[in-house]
Design goal:
The protein has 312 residues and is α/β, with parallel strands linked by helices. 38% of the residues lie in helices and 20% in strands. Strands 1, 2, 3, 4, 5, 6, 8, 10 and 11 form a 9-stranded mixed sheet that branches.
Length: 312
């Protein structure tokens, strides 16, 4: 791979199993001379998934030694980059041959001069276009999400499920599964905020980029595969807790005090009951246990004074 290639691909791995190798192989096969280095940051995996990548000339494995969280691990991987662009790619995603040539041609064009973040059309295992873009959170949108109103009226929430994702357009936020960023912008903003262990780190970054005058674009002339959920599916008992904690941290950082307080209040009161009703209605007992398990973990975390450092 050429040292002059414009993209460094950063993949954060945590027990991704064979998906990691498949992801890396897809990047290597579809690099088209555009990839400088594939950086795999292993967050203390115990399944040996990163071991077989050691020694590959096209891959640099960075051993974090423990689970640093997604944002901090991405920042660690980005330090290895000297290219014009950074592509943060989930280990459950895979590129296609035309992905990088198409998206880089767009980003290098005059119409994309102020585009700092670009996502592509993501396809699931059935070849369907995933709904992957969101509106930036406001107090109203987060409250609608917390109590589940956005499931019935999607336009009230953040997730743009009402849009078919069929055309290229400017959006407020693209999903972090395929997150192409101009490296100077990433450096200017100081990377991802490491207080977000997982979830909302790319949302926070998109908001800060927008405030700095940069746009986010969803680009449909390039596609990639994304399985969805990824390695977080291995830790369902904690996934909701991490999501709720990051949502609260985002609200505390960016929303008015009253709005952030309302989000936390509903997270601790209305949300577990709403999730219980939904789980019982669908006879999904694990969802009920997960809702109250997350509630217990969130209370415990808040009781420790809401530390914002990374988890062990």
């Amino acid at each position: 791979m050429s040292a002059q290639a414009p993209v460094t691909v950063v993949i954060v791995n945590w027990n991704a199993g064979s998906s990691l190798r498949e992801c890396v192989d897809s990047v290597a096969a579809c690099s088209a001379g555009r990839v400088d280095t594939i950086v795999v940051v292993d967050n203390g995996s115990r399944d040996g998934s990163a071991d077989e990548l050691e020694g590959r000339p096209d891959v640099k494995v960075v051993r974090a030694g423990r689970n640093l969280g997604f944002g901090r691990a991405c920042n660690l991987g980005a330090r290895e980059a000297g290219s014009e662009y950074l592509l943060f790619l989930n280990p459950d995603a895979m590129l296609r041959p035309a992905t990088l040539p198409a998206v880089l041609a767009y980003m290098d064009g005059s119409a994309a001069g102020d585009v700092g973040i670009c996502g592509v059309q993501l396809l699931d295992a059935n070849g369907r276009v995933a709904r992957s873009c969101s509106r930036l959170p406001t107090t109203g949108r987060l409250l609608a999400q917390t109590v589940g109103i956005d499931r019935f009226v999607p336009r009230l929430g953040c997730f743009m499920s009402e849009w078919d994702h069929a055309e290229t357009r400017e959006v407020q936020q693209v999903i972090g599964a395929f997150y192409l960023v101009r490296r100077p912008l990433f450096a200017r903003l100081g990377g991802f905020d490491e207080r977000f262990f997982v979830y909302f780190e790319e949302v926070d970054f998109a908001l800060r980029a927008a405030r700095a005058g940069w746009r986010s674009v969803y680009f449909t002339d390039a596609q990639a595969f994304h399985a969805g959920c990824g390695t977080t599916a291995q830790a369902k008992a904690r996934r909701l807790f991490y999501y709720q904690r990051s949502r609260w941290l985002y609200a505390r950082k960016h929303l008015p005090t009253a709005g952030a307080g309302a989000v936390l209040a509903l997270t601790l009161t209305a949300e577990p009951f709403a999730r219980t009703v939904g789980g019982l209605a669908r006879a999904r007992w694990p969802e009920v246990r997960e809702a109250w398990g997350a509630w217990s973990k969130l209370l415990s975390w808040l009781g420790r004074g809401s530390p914002v450092g990374v988890d062990e």
